Amino acid sequence: MKNKHIDIQQAAEYFRDGMTIMVGGFMGVGTPPRLVEALLNSGVKDLTIIANDTAFVDTGIGPLVVNGRVKKVIASHIGTNPETGRRMIAGEMEVELVPQGTLIEQIRCGGAGLGGFLTPTGVGTVVEEGKQKITVADTEYLLELPLRADLALIQAHIADHQGNLVYQMTARNFNPLIALAADVVIAEPDSLVAVGDISPDQVMTPGALIDHIVCPKEC
Question: What are the alphabetically sorted keywords of the record (predicted)?
Fold first, then answer.
């Protein structure tokens, strides 16, 4: 079996300027803290970050924004991080706001290999600008295209040595779907158990989707 264990320094070797990264989390809950810290400390810049939100200035992916490492954010809201709004208004960072359901479906399509999907959400608003509209049975829809990333950084509650993951309640959020939609997926679990200790019925993300596991301290 492939050894998927890496330390945080080895994880940092996957970071590079200008890459697109998906990060799990909802206002920082479910965001892998050690991986985000390593990303910040690596010094890489001009990142495109795809996430539900930009959390707060000092939590989640907020420090990446505050320290000017992000060129573009694709997210469903930014209101909890005033620095994101300030940088957007000042023209220092591009922000693409996407309705939350649309955003997660774009990611799901990217992971499933689909060419996009039709949604009525955003028709007649600024959301439709630059997008193709298609009429089906007298109803107008927007064609929303799939999203993929070079790298996905996800947090799990428990992992086994093959990368089968279990999440803790709402910390699950975007993590399972971004694990499908990136070329390389790195998971940061809170704890690590032996293969077989997680019941197959409890696995929320199968190990086949996980390239690397950043070992917790006891690893």
Answer: Transferase
Low-confidence ranges of the chain (pLDDT < 50): none
The secondary structure of the chain in percent helix, strand, coil, rounded to multiples of 5, reads 25, 30, 45
Contact 36, 63 (CB under 8 A): yes
Whole-model pTM over 0.90: yes
| Contact criterion met (CB below 8 Å) for 47 and 16 | no
- The DSSP call for residue 130 is T
Cα 6 to Cα 3, 10, 81, 101, 164: the distances in Å are 9, 6, 31, 33, 16
Tokens of 105: 């479906």
Give me the torsion for CA of 215, 56, 147, 173, rounded to 10°: 60
Tell me, letter by letter, the H, E, C secondary structure of 22-62. Answer: EECCECCECCCHHHHHHHHHHCCCCEEEECCECCCCCCCCH
Question: Within the chain, what is the greatest distance between any pair of CA atoms?
Answer: 59
